[in-house]
Amino acid sequence: MSTTPPGLGEPRGPWFTSPDLAHGGAPVRVLPQEAGPAESGSNRRWPRLLLAGVALVAVSAGAGGTAGWLAAPEAPVTGAASPPPAPAGTPVPSDLVTAAARALPGVVSVQVRGGASRSSGSGFVIDDRGHIVTNDHVVAGAGTISVVGQDGRRLAARLVGRDPGSDIAVVRVDGARLPALPLAPAGQTRVGEPALALGSPLGLSGTVTAGIVSALDRPVRLGGGARQSAVQTDASINPGNSGGPLVNARGEVVGVNTAIATLEGGGSIGIGFAIPIERAARVAEGLIERG
């Protein structure tokens, strides 16, 4: 009997490249489980050993342990002191409250059953015909697909198409009106602007986490394919967020949440990655046309 806690999944995947600060930034190829303990009395070795355990994993979730991919950003990662906690009672910006209220009705939990296995992730409505964008790794082993909306309704869905190379898939629900999310205009996303990650992390539907867009055009390897540019964010992304939207303060989708950086296979450490919405929308449109 599996001991994997429901909603966590079990990351697995190919080799990844991790920056090696102890050797002038030259990348080395390691597996996360091969990172050894730091040598006692040697403070100079900790950056290399720390980074050897940094992986980038897709964040689908399921009781049966869904698949993920390991990769790594091209740029070195450096340590930084934790910021002081915000004072109690700090007001939440009203624009983020409005953005969350605007986007949540179009966000769904995507649940997949195939034989004895189950998996789950997130998705969002992209048009008025019931098409929902999610990650390919969420539905890769699809048997029966259903989505659960913010009102608790469970709706049967069918797979329209998959694109493993971009890690984008589209499913569709018929006979139900779900509000489509607006997409951010191409080229308008800026580093430092507020961002919200919406979805069902650990099976907790309707969850919203806040942060900023911390980098653009970050080269990472997703879907087991070639390197792709991604939107980097510090909004908390966890297993089950896969396929959900990353939205700006206007409630517009800027990316599809796909992966997180982890240490030694742990949870979110505050670095997440989303497929830019321009690419995701282009792939989704192609899948819809062919499907």
3D architecture notes:
By secondary structure, the chain is mainly beta. It has two domains: 1-26 and 52-75 and 94-106 and 179-291, Trypsin-like serine proteases (Thrombin, subunit H, Beta Barrel); 107-178, Thrombin, subunit H. Helix content is 12%, strand content 36%. It contains four helices and 16 strands. The strands form three sheets. The chain has a six-stranded antiparallel beta barrel with strand order 11-12-13-16-15-14. The chain is globular, with a radius of gyration of 19 Å. The termini are far apart.
**How would you name the CATH homologous superfamily of the largest domain?**
Trypsin-like serine proteases
- List the helices and strands in order: EEHEEHEEEHEEEEEEEEEH
SS field, number of helical segments: 4
Termini separation: 38 Å
Q: Can you count the beta strands?
A: 16
The parts where pLDDT drops under 50 for at least 5 residues are 1-53, 63-83, 86-90
Protein structure class: mainly beta
- Cα radius of gyration in angstroms: 19 Å
Count of domain modules: 2
Secondary structure: helix percent: 10-25%
Content of β-strand:
35-45%
Which fold does the CATH topology of the largest domain refer to? Thrombin, subunit H
**CATH class membership of the largest domain:** Mainly Beta
Biggest sheet statistics? 6 strands, antiparallel, barrel
Kindly state the mean pLDDT as a whole number?
Answer: 75
